[in-house]
Amino acid sequence: MSWLALSLSLYAVSVITLTYTSVSSFASISAGQLCTLQNSFEPSFVAQGDFVIGGIFPLHYNQEMPDLNCTYRPPPVKCNGFDPRAFRWAQTMRLAVEEINQSPELLPNYTLGYKIFDSCAYPLTGQRAALAVLNGLSEAESPMCSSSYPLLAVIGESGSAQSIVVSRLLQPFRIPMISYFSSCACLTDRRKYPTFFRVIPNDDYQVRAIAQLLVHFNWTWVGLVRGDHEYGRFAVQGLLRELQGTKVCVAYQEMIPLLYNQQRALEIISLAKVVVVFSAEGEMTPFLRDYMAQNITGIQWVASEAWVTASVFTGSEYYPYLGGTIGFGIRTGHISRLSNYLQTINPQKYPNNPLVQELWEALYGCSPSLSSASQLPLCLGQESLLEQHSAYMNTSSPRVAYNAYKAVYAIAHSLHNLLHCQPGSGPFENNSCAQSNSISPWQEVKFTIAGEEVNFDLKGDSIPYYDVINWQRGTSENIEFINVGLFDGTKPAGDELLIEEDRIMWAGHQSEVPVSVCSASCPPGSRKAVRRGKPVCCFDCVPCDSDSIECTFCPENFWSSEDRTSCIPKKVEFLAYDSLGIALTVISAVGACLTIAVFAVFFHHRNTAIVRVNNSELSFFILFALTLCFLCSLVFIGEPTVWSCMLRHTAFSITFSLCISCILGKTMVVLAAFTATRPGNNIMKWLGPKQQRAIIFSCTLVQVVICAAWLIDAPPYPSRNIKYERSKIILECSVGSSLAFWCVLGYIGLQAGLCFVLAFLARKLPGNFNEAKFITFSMLIFCTVWLAFIPAYISSPGNYADAVESFAILGSSFGLLFCLFAPKCYIILLKPEQNTKQHLMGKEKKEHVTASQHRDKSEGKIERSL
């Protein structure tokens, strides 16, 4: 329920006096001189009544400005381009007035009249029409200088620019104006336009609908074209406001000149795929003709309600260029008698009406009379309706015409309520009613027409409701307006727009939604880099890297997929019991078993010459240490833990140090025994069994101390290597202290090097018992393995580093086992006849007994030492 300003000037002398007081004053300037009409602007249609309603319609959509050279009185603006669609709106107003006059329930005992003028879709002509509508039914016959005229209200205008001019002109007279097609949001200002009302939603709702449409179809790069008037300016401002915070960018904003200029219009045509146009059909017509002349197709037009249902564009020649246009049209209605009423308009009934003649020329392409200035042939009465204007008779879904129809009924219902007001329940001060000779301008109005409830909000606007219109090819190759959705502004935000996408036909007769972007979406794994000086929708795609702050990085335990669209858990790798781990385990177990087997052979033959000569105690120590060396490689297999990481390097280093210490002790004994064969040398007394054990213990203790300091200061710990390969997490043992790690290896290398040097010095022992040669070969293999291990270990990642270290442990262990014990086991098991003291000592009959006796004494010392 809302308030409608209706200045019902039935006998409103106080209002009309304002008009004619100034005229009388002008007339009194020269007494005796009559008040004469200086110019004439006759209405297109006129009818008398108790109350007269003015009507202003754009019956022409273009104008030709006169020559203004100030040397003679300029002629009026010449209107061009007859618009049958607007002519239908005017006839709908006439039909509504006739229906009300014939109604026994609405305004009984009163009649309505009307005066309909052509605004030529131009504000100056609209102003002239507004001034003319204030006068009598006919300017030439009106006693304009002597009496008043009962104007009730004005129906108009179509364009917002024209409505602003007319509303301001009518405002001092408190004459209300109800627009059927002016949607500019600027007209909601009640301080500037207190007597303006409309039966069409204002553009605040339309721009909201268009913004939602652009977002819905992901059109992020659009052009804006508007007419040179307030309607276009306010609509563009509203749309830009609605697009803030969305991903939609405006490629350009252009204006169709009010006085059309072809060169300027051609500059508007742009490469943007989607173009939103806020303009009236009159301005669009010459612009689109030039657009078609350039043969530009594929543009997806988004039309405002001002031209989305314009019948002048329904011809088949427009379809290649305008087909697929989508926009928001005002709500349709039903006018039962409109079709029959339009058929009564013909030149025979209105022979002197130039508009009817223009209608006939537009519909049939012929002139109805010889008196017409048109160059068209004379009508013969057998012409068919022209295809491009068939919409004139298509009254199945009237929109703007229905608004004009509602506007007339709104005035009639308001007047009816005023005239039938009951004292004590009126809308005015003290619940009073209007007086017939002084009707106040404010009245509450609410009524139902064709099943629709009509009322106005506090701003004079109607309920917001739009149909989504799509221009599609009809059966006769012309353009048809198909309803493919709706926008209901009364629903909650986000739920207003409903579109049936499968019913839409897009530009170029395509069924797929067109794409309109400045820059295509960046592929996965890249980020947007905004171009300097360009909107945010224009960007370059830059691959993601460590400095790409706009890219989403995967967590540490994840890696980006190949197309960089998702994060995938990284594969965790370590030296597990897989094929490699099992192989190392088997080799380790075989080595340990072989060592134990050798131990068993030596223990079983411990009383034989070869075991005794090789110092059985040191041999057993070496075999025990080798067994531990083979087994410690198993610690490197499996998922690293805190304890396994600390045990890996310490167990390996201590067991190898023990093994090398035993070999070092044995080498020293062999070298000492060889040296002891020389006369006067007593070194063997310092290398007895106790001294040998002390050497082994002290050499091993040094390694134990280094390992203890390592574990206390910076022990090895399990770590996750994510840098070597982005798709994997390698579980490995960090050494903790690199210095301690290389000290451990360095000490083992020092022991092995010293052992190798001593064995090399003792290489010239007797041929059948050259233990030093075997020690030399074993140390040579040991050092070679570990020298090759260092670069391989450094260059190998994670589980491969563990595998390399395990192979080095096993390889060096096997080298020591085979070089030191394989020849002895061969003699023990396969050549028992050589397992004698005489053979090992190499005793032979010599020609010189003295020399033989001396050698026997030396070899006896060696045997006792070993």
Q: How does this structure look, described?
A:
By secondary structure, the chain is an alpha/beta fold. It has 4 domains: 238 residues, Response regulator (Rossmann fold, 3-Layer(aba) Sandwich); 167 residues, Response regulator (Rossmann fold), CATH 3.40.50.2300; 47 residues, no CATH class; 287 residues, Up-down Bundle (Rhopdopsin 7-helix transmembrane proteins), CATH 1.20.1070. Helix content is 41%, strand content 15%. The strands form 8 sheets. The protein has an 8-stranded mixed sheet, with helices on both faces. A 6-stranded mixed sheet has the order 2-6-3-7-8-9, with helices on both faces. Strands 25-27-26 form a 3-stranded mixed sheet. 41% of the residues are buried.
- The CATH first-level class of the largest domain comes to Mainly Alpha
Tally of DSSP helical segments: 22
Q: Rg from C-alpha positions? A: 55 Å
The unreliable regions are: 1-32, 438-443, 843-866
Class by alpha and beta content: alpha/beta
Overall residue-averaged pLDDT value: 78
Task: Classify the fold: give the CATH topology of the largest domain.
Answer: Rhopdopsin 7-helix transmembrane proteins
The proportion of strand residues reads: 15-25%
Largest sheet: 8 strands, mixed
Alpha-carbon distance between the two ends: 124 Å
Q: Tell me the CATH architecture of the largest domain.
A: Up-down Bundle
Keywords: Cell membrane, G-protein coupled receptor, Glycoprotein, Membrane, Receptor, Signal, Transducer, Transmembrane, Transmembrane helix
Family: Belongs to the G-protein coupled receptor 3 family. TAS1R subfamily.
Membrane topology: Multi-pass membrane protein
GO cellular component, one term: plasma membrane
